[in-house]
Amino acid sequence: MKSIFAAGMLVTMALSGTALAQDYPTKPITVVVPFSAGGPTDTVARLVAEAMSQDLGQQVVVQNVGGAGGTLGAGQVATAPNDGYTLLLHHIGMSTAPTLYRSLPYDPLTDFSTIGLITSVPMTLVARKDFEPNTMAELLDYVKANGENITYAHAGIGSASQLCGMLFMEAVDTPMTTVPYQGSGPAMTDIIGGQVDLICDQTTNTTSQILAGEVKAYGVTSSTRLPTLPELPTTREGGLSLEIGVWHGLYAPAGTDPAIIARLEASLQKALTNESVTTRFAELGTYPVTAAEATPEALTQTLTSQIELWRAVIEAAGVYAD
To answer: What is the similarity comment for this entry (predicted)?
Structure first.
């Protein structure tokens, strides 16, 4: 009798969970961005959140939980209730954290349910507008000749700008003096103000400044030139072997009902075809991923392969956060 009762309870719970998933969502959803407001990942999140709100019929609210290179916000979501009302929008840092942080309080592969990829944002090498080199070739020669006399800004440990800087210094086989900031916004402010020399950051955070002539741009880290910046050569055109795109993905806490994940996946895919999203993305030098990439399977595959890729890069550089 006990086994029959237990089986009945399991069936009841499963049916109850299915009913809840069918009604989902019934209240606002919070998307945690593990970086400060105004940065490139925050920009992506707010565009997607607004479009998903229209589809889901509930407000999707962006909450900035910065600190510890994105691990603070990610850790908060990892331990949140897996009811679909707390999500995480994170970038490439999700794949670098397991190596950068030796005592990471969560496992990116087991503590989250993946929903889908969103976009891969190219990066640009830019400098204060009165920086001496004028072309990529001149920049490479100048960096090799001056090395640690050059200040390289980045948005903090684990940030995309730090990762790009690591790859750049590895490519030219020359270290520079790194200057960490608490976010891309303050770093870009000091580049514009001439307090630091150089940064490699996402087009979502540099395109406006490049077009306004507030910074000097050398190259974009994509395989082809960008329609929004047609005069800016690729890094490869300029003689630098550096291609990197900062991919973004959407996650829920592990164990989230598959029906809820499916609803969020469908909403994400719809958001990525929203005209306001595609138009603004294009203006910022990026594009939404395809429907086949905005899936749990594609994000899981990307995350798994990128963890291995960045483990080798970070271990070779010997740069750790703790």
So the answer is: Belongs to the UPF0065 (bug) family.
Cβ(213)–Cβ(53) below 8 Å: no
195 is in which domain, residue-wise?
A: 122-220
DSSP states along 247-291:
EEEEEEETT--HHHHHHHHHHHHHHTT-HHHHHHHHHTT--BPPT
Distance of alpha carbon 308 from alpha carbon 35, whole angstroms = 23
Q: Report whether 311 contacts 101 (CB < 8 A).
A: no
This prediction's pTM:
0.82
Alpha helices in 24-69 (DSSP H): 40-56
For the cut 80, the answer to whether the pLDDT of residue 211 exceeds it is yes
| CATH classification of the domain holding 313 | 3.40.190.150
